[in-house]
């Protein structure tokens, strides 16, 4: 069988007519908004809710210096293993580096963060290296107005390499990207200290964003690990300059990935390929355009309310930005789930023999990739639609609850109408790009 990129099938894979899926999704969002508008009059999500505490022994084990040191060293060791494969392994499409970079890191990281919390803080190899380097010079304060803008640029650099560069599968290009990333992270940490990683590391911030839908979090005092409603955790997403831009890059790039497979867009790219760098410029413009459309439309919808002063209106996009997190993750899982399951298997099998010398370090050398999702397109399509629609419903609920806290009475419903229309548009566009194209 022919496996399409990222396991993204077409509308013929849907177990129901494609038009019905679009109409049903729109009605699901509209009914959700109507139900919460009529029956949800007071905010219910509160990060201060205690949750159910895990046994203290588990928290003590997780927080133990020895545990964190072992996890950090394992992360560093895995990085060294991948670098060994990248440099000493076959310099062709059999190398494990692209799969590790584009699948295990980009898709596996948010998955692990939803399940376990912001794991990149523990396993980041550059954080570990920086902690091991002797330091003498004092660091300077990180500029508060920079916020997450370095992260937004870093994330855009990643998706540009994957979706707009001349050869995203090039080992040389990936190695160069990783070298520049390492230099920027270590130089930034040298200037600003640990805070640089929490503000400027694209993978750490991506992990933090995804972790806001995790049922695991800290209690109000930051001492115990508790299990609670992810919607209580969601509003704790840090609000800093660039927060909306980070989410716009994540959502816009996933949408562009689907759009770039459409025949009409391919024809546009082919038409520019005669000019030097024309195809790359076209893809870059398309990728940037999608991120800007998401960011600007959300920014305008968040500010489209009455009854608030100028300063409060300016803060609304950041204060409502957490409602985009379920939508981002819904699209990521819808778009890349089969990629993670199937290409992820292939990558792990290749890492079992990183130098292509017949080794079987993980005991997986004789295993074959199980195309469990691609072989059942109806199930896969259903999962995709469910992820997209569920993400948007969760976004509507989160935005409504936040509006009840942020907007004055008399504007709590009318102030959400623009956001509702934008989310319906996101749903239609997302499903069309995922299947219709």
- Overall pLDDT confidence: 87
Strand percent estimate: under 5%
Secondary-structure element sequence? Answer: HEHHHHHHHHHHEEHHHHHHHH
Alpha-carbon Rg, integer = 22 Å
Residue ranges: pLDDT <50 for 5 or more in a row? Answer: 1-13
Task: Count all strands and give the number.
Answer: 3
Characterise this structure:
With 437 residues, the chain is an all-alpha fold. 65% of the residues lie in helices and 2% in strands. The protein is built from 19 helices and three strands. It has helices spanning 18-39, 56-63, 65-88, 97-105, 108-116, 120-123, 125-132, 149-163, 171-192, 195-200, 202-211, 230-233, 243-259, 263-272, 278-303, 310-320, 325-351, 377-406, 417-436, and strands at 52-53, 216-218, 225-227. It has a three-stranded antiparallel β-sheet. Strand 2 (216-218) and strand 3 (225-227) form a beta hairpin. Helix 3 (65-88) packs across helix 7 and helix 8 crosses helix 11. The chain is globular and about 70 Å long.
Sum this structure up briefly.
The protein is built from 19 helices and three strands. With 437 residues, the protein is an all-alpha fold. It is globular.
Based on the model shown, name its key terms.
mainly alpha, three-stranded antiparallel sheet, 437 residues
């Amino acid at each position: 069988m022919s496996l399409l990129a990222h396991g993204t099938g077409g509308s013929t894979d849907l177990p129901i007519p494609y038009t019905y899926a679009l109409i049903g999704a729109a009605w699901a969002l509209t009914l959700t908004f109507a139900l919460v508008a009529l029956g949800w009059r007071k905010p219910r999500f509160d990060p201060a809710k205690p949750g159910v505490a895990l046994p203290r022994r588990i928290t003590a084990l997780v927080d133990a210096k020895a545990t964190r040191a072992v996890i950090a060293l394992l992360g560093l060791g895995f990085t060294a293993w991948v670098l060994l494969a990248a440099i000493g392994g076959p310099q062709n499409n059999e190398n494990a580096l692209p799969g590790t970079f584009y699948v295990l890191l980009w898709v596996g990281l948010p998955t692990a963060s939803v399940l376990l919390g912001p794991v990149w803080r523990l396993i980041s190899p550059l954080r570990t290296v920086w902690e091991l380097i002797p330091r003498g010079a004092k660091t300077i304060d990180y500029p508060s107005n920079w916020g997450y803008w370095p992260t937004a640029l870093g994330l855009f650099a990643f998706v540009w390499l994957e979706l707009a560069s001349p050869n995203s599968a090039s080992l040389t290009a990936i190695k160069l990207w990783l070298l520049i990333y390492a230099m920027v992270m270590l130089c930034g940490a040298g200037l600003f200290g640990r805070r640089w990683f929490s503000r400027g590391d694209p993978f750490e911030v991506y992990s933090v964003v995804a972790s806001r839908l995790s049922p695991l979090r800290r209690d109000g005092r930051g001492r115990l690990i508790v299990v609670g409603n992810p919607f209580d955790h969601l509003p704790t997403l840090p609000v800093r300059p660039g927060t909306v831009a980070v989410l716009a890059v994540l959502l816009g790039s996933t949408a562009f990935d689907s759009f770039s497979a459409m025949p009409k867009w391919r024809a546009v790219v082919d038409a520019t390929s005669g000019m030097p760098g024309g195809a790359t410029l076209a893809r870059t413009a398309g990728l940037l355009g999608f991120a800007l459309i998401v960011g600007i439309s959300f920014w305008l919808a968040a500010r489209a309310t009455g009854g608030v002063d100028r300063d409060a209106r300016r803060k609304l996009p950041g204060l409502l930005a957490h409602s985009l997190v379920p939508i981002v993750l819904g699209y990521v899982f819808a778009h890349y789930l089969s990629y993670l399951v199937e290409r992820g298997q292939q990558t792990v099998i290749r890492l079992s023999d990183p130098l292509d010398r017949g080794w079987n370090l993980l005991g997986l050398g004789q295993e074959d990739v199980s195309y469990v999702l691609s072989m059942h397109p109806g199930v896969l399509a259903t999962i995709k639609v469910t992820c997209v629609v569920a993400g948007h419903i969760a976004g509507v609920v989160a935005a409504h609850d936040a509006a009840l806290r942020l907007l004055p009475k008399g504007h709590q419903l009318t102030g959400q109408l623009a956001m509702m229309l934008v989310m319906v548009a996101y749903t239609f566009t997302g499903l069309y790009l995922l299947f219709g194209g």
